[in-house]
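Question (not urgent): is this output format expected?
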Amino acid sequence: YSLLMALMLFYILLGMFLDGISSVVLTMAIVQEMVLGAGIDLIWFGIFIVIVVEMAQITPPIGFNLFVMQGITHHEMGYIAKTAIPLFLIMVLMVFVMIFFPELATFLPENMRGPRG
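Got this back:
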């Protein structure tokens, strides 16, 4: 759990300054080895990383999705950042639910794989 919490905080902080694909490409070579060493399912981790990177895209100062919303709505950045806070908190809650109940995230991929062996 501590590795997942550290990675979540790391990607949120990184997402404050980089876009999502850049942060994943820059770090995945090292992070994947840590995740494999911890025995975490890579499909589950892929879902986890997508959610966490999307959370990071709505965090100021450089949350790229905030700039997209500003361009669409023509509101001030401060207003958009304040209105994104509840969505960020919902995503944090969703990550915690996914950590404590991993089968929620892997139910569909497991059924698409078919029986093992």
